[in-house]
Amino acid sequence: MTALLADLHIHTALSPCAARQMLPQNIVRTCRQRGLKMIAICDHNSAANVSAVAEAAERETGSALKVIPGIEVTTREEVHVLGLFPALQSALAVSESVLESLPRRKSAEQAPNPVGKDPDCQQWILDAADRQIGTEQRLLTGASGYSLSEAVTLIRRHGGIAVAAHIDRRAFSVLGQLGFFPETPQFSAAEISSAGAARGRIEEFRRYGLPLISSSDSHFLEDIACSCTTFMVAEPSFAELVLAIRGIGARRCQIA
Amino acid sequence: MKLNQVAAGLGLQALTTAPADQERAEITRAHASDLLSDVLANAPAGGVLLTIQVHLNVIAVAMHAMQAAVIFTSGMLPDEAVRAKAVEEGISLFTTRESTFDTAGKLYALGIRGRHE
After folding, report:
1. What is the pTM of this model?
2. Which of A67, A120, A151, A176 has its CA 20 to 30 A from that of A161?
3. Which CATH number, 3.40.1130.10, 1.20.1730.10, 3.20.20.140, 3.90.960.10, labels domain A2-255?
4. Chain A residue numbers touching B31 (CB-CB < 8 A)
């Protein structure tokens, strides 16, 4: 078993609220500098940039940085749910269904990005060399057509695991939107935000009985690895990640 | 003002049939929010909740916050499971095509107030 430092919630310039410096090569270099061995790319309601980051990681690091395909789904209740997947294809299949359910923008010209902190950020679809190869036209920050239960079912049906995102935050979390954890769906884990972990709020969330992880939810390069989870695993893979979350054998995960 | 008078005054569509005593419950307070954590923290007991949130947790939260009724605004309709839970727990449910803003305005005009007034 080896201890791997992981940050399982990183956005790219595809997310309208992320900085335009969140490009595949930039992300990979920053992750490497900060000692990360495993990351997940979780853009809002789309997995379109996962392959670019995975390819950039392979070119730049060989197999030293494992990229887990992911997505951050906004449910109808405006709860954020992370989906982590065994393969790119499963993440893309979920991404396609979620995208299809998003409201269409009236027109890209009439409705410019209203939420981006960076006015130049226009939901870029990128390649592994940081080149813009497209622009997502639907507004990715909107709520999808999937309810919380439906979103988790969709993620599971494609072999993924669902993580309740930043449960310590008031906005866009299960607890903020819904007051408490509903009986269903069953999440595989819950994420504590960097702010929550920094304020020592981890213990108060143990009572929900879910394995806890923490990640950066980075929208800016400087935030990458600001909050991490250490995974004791046999190798950096999705299967081992799931076993570590469940605490099978000697595997385990602990907020770093 | 009695709950049934409020419902009639606003032209609300009832989603549950309440026992007579519940229909005549005195309503003086209301709260409008879609964040159920805010409802738990701030909705005045015995009041009416206005929301577009239709998740099952609305009922459990309304119970905990001791709400007399929930009005789903903007034409939002909960699932049958949500309605059944409300019936079981004795919470009256209504729906209206009007927005939360308009519904709150009409409630205010009827003399119903928020938690601070």
Report:
1. 0.89
2. A176
3. 3.20.20.140
4. none
A179 with B56: Cβ contact below 8 A: no
pLDDT at residue A116, rounded to an integer: 47
Between the CA of residue A123 and those of A13, A175, A189, A247, what are the distances in Å? 6, 28, 28, 37
Instruction: Determine which helix (DSSP H) or strand (DSSP E) holds B101, and give its type and residue range.
Output: helix B100-109
Domain map of chain A by residue range? 2-255
Partners of A4 in beta bridges = A231
Q: Considering only the beta carbons, identify the residue of A170, A176, A178 that sits closest to B55.
A: A178
Report A:70-99 residues touching B (Cβ under 8 A). Answer: 77-78
- For residue B35, the chain A residue with the least C-alpha distance is A177
In this complex, the residue of A147, A177, A182 whose CB is nearest that of residue B35 is: A177
Delineate the domains of chain B, giving CATH numbers in brackets. 3-109 (3.40.1390.20)
Q: Which of A248, A225, A187 is CA-nearest to residue A6?
A: A225
- A170 to B37: CB separation less than 8 angstroms, yes or no: yes
Q: From CA B48, how far away is CA B107, in angstroms rounded?
A: 10
Can you tell me the mean pLDDT for A31-39? 98
How distant is the alpha carbon of residue B104 from its chain centre?
A: 11
For B33, which residue in chain A has the nearest alpha carbon?
Answer: A177
Q: Comparing A142 with B56, which gets the higher pLDDT?
A: B56
Q: What is the pLDDT of residue A149?
A: 95
Mean pLDDT of A114-133: 76
Option in A78, A170, A178 nearest B57 (CB): A178
Q: How many CB pairs under 8 A join A and B?
A: 36
Instruction: Provide the β-strand partners of residue A43.
Output: A46
Answer whether A86's CB lies under 8 Å from A71's CB.
no
CA dist., res. B23 & res. B92, Å (int): 8
Dihedrals phi, psi of A22, to nearest 5 degrees? -80, 65
